[in-house]
Amino acid sequence: MKDKKTRHTGVYRTPSGDWKIRATAVCRTTGKLKEATRTLPGTTPEPAVLSQLNQLKESLAEGGVRRSPKKSSALSVADFATEWLGRKAQRVRPSVAINYEAKLSLFILPRLGHIALEDLTREDIEGWVTWAETAKMKSGRAYTRATVTGWWRALVTLVKDAVAELGLPVDPTNRVRAPKPRQQGRREKGTLTADQLGSLLGELKRIAPERYAEVYILAYSGVRAGELYALSDEDVDEKRARILIRKSVWNGHLDSTKTDSPREVALTPGMLAVIREHRAFLEASFHRGRKGTLLFPAQTGGYRTGQTLRKPLARAAEAAGIEQVVTPQVLRRTVNTLLLLSGVDRIVIRSQLGHVSEQMTERYAGIGVDAKLDAVARMEARKRMVTATDVPL
Question: Is residue 183 part of a domain?
């Protein structure tokens, strides 16, 4: 049961009938906002309770109050996080749940997990922010701002849910500024040039022809690897020249797309030729997945993963003289870059790739497949790019 509010701000009744007072005040010495809670016997007269509350506020302002020892029965941040993650896992994609768990267990709970939720203060949160801004990897490099911001969002979400669920009177993250690392870690956003992409595809078709079709579709459609491996025959609409992106695969499990929104991507003649040749290859090689509906089945007939492309792409990149590591994500970024270089409108690009913010989803919703088809066909036709018929399968 939750503590019940009274008509006095900062005064509550516990389920056992005791009084609980919670005071906040700005320390006159440090200028920081401090908080403290006290529990008083239920027989204490109300005027005495209010007097205790005022004294507690004054003590906080003087900077002389220390947090009372944590009670063994108090719910800690770590205890709540365990319950919270269990509920989250039932409502979000497995990858999202694992991401939350990693952020909490590695970067949040080691510093805040032992504190009772009712004793968690703004000072605790600010202390964590200070640590996060200077945190280093084992190599000594600073974390990127995007990484640290991800930790912060996980912490804020956890605390705000705790405040809402437990009826805590104060949100200690309120008005605390997000961490901003003083030393920015840099991560290059690798992309390929049109020439490099053409060379990569050519070498891949020579080295691993059985993987050529899926890489070709990744390289020209910009779909995510999980979306690619969720495709079935019915998602390829040859008549309307489109591919329907409705599902995604993660760790062998079929789920919704990353944005939870289906979309259409362009199906160019080159892509269609590759898909048809791939279907013929599956039949001719008596592939175990040929009798199913998956477009790019694994050797077992089930779902593939993007990790299985690591070695074929590495070998093709080495043969093509490409020094950077090539992954499905690099191919996705390459599509975005080459479309921009081809003068394609950014709205069309974002609709094609499905990489949109919530605020822009409605703006992109009305884009037809014809505009996407024209855009990708122009990119596909750039000088020295490999097409489906350049090299026989």
Answer: no
